[in-house]
Amino acid sequence: MFDFIKLQSDVEETKSLLLSFINSQTCKIFKDDSDQVLTVEECAVFLHLSKATIYTKISKGELPVIKKAKRCYFLRSDLIEYLKKDRIQTSSEIQHEVKQALRNK
């Protein structure tokens, strides 16, 4: 007869191995290596966008891209700067800037 307990154990072990592999791959993308070069797929994961959206942003000139041999690459540091450029300041940061500007007059 079939050993369901062994089968369940094998399924749990396989699940654990898959989750471990996925986490290791994700950690490679998000590690703190600012000069890391990313592919379109890795860029999509990093920005939480679809590959189609990445290609659209490339064609519109919205993303900093390196094109080499008909392939697109991205520097992780460039993508972080891309994200930071539209950052909304907090109220305290705005107040601090206003105070600095008034002091300099």
Write the layout of secondary structure elements.
Blueprint: H1 4-30, E1 37-38, H2 40-47, H3 51-59, E2 66-68, E3 71-75, H4 76-84, H5 91-103
Antiparallel strand pairs: 1-3, 2-3
What does this structure look like?
- Helices cover 63% and strands 10% of the residues.
- The model has no long low-confidence stretch (mean pLDDT 87).
- Strand 2 and strand 3 (71-75) form a beta hairpin.
- The radius of gyration is 22 Å and the shape is elongated.
- The chain starts with a helix and ends with a helix.
- Strands 1-3-2 form a three-stranded antiparallel sheet.
- The chain has two domains: 1-30; 32-88, Arc Repressor Mutant, subunit A (Orthogonal Bundle), CATH 1.10.10.
- It is mainly alpha-helical.
Quick summary of this structure?
This protein has 105 residues and is mainly alpha-helical.
Features:
105 residues; mainly alpha; Arc Repressor Mutant, subunit A; 2 domains; three-stranded antiparallel β-sheet
The percentage of residues in β strands lies in: 5-15%
State the helical fraction.
55-70%
Strand line-up of the largest beta sheet: 1-3-2
CATH class of the largest domain: Mainly Alpha
How many strands? 3
CATH topology heading of the largest domain: Arc Repressor Mutant, subunit A
Can you name the CATH architecture of the largest domain? Orthogonal Bundle
Largest sheet: 3 strands, antiparallel
**Poorly predicted segments:** none
Number of domains: 2
Order of helices and strands: HEHHEEHH
Number of helices: 5
Specify the overall morphology. elongated
Strand pairing plus helix content: what structural class?
mainly alpha
Alpha-carbon distance between the two ends = 88 Å
Radius of gyration: 22 Å
Averaged pLDDT, please?
Answer: 87
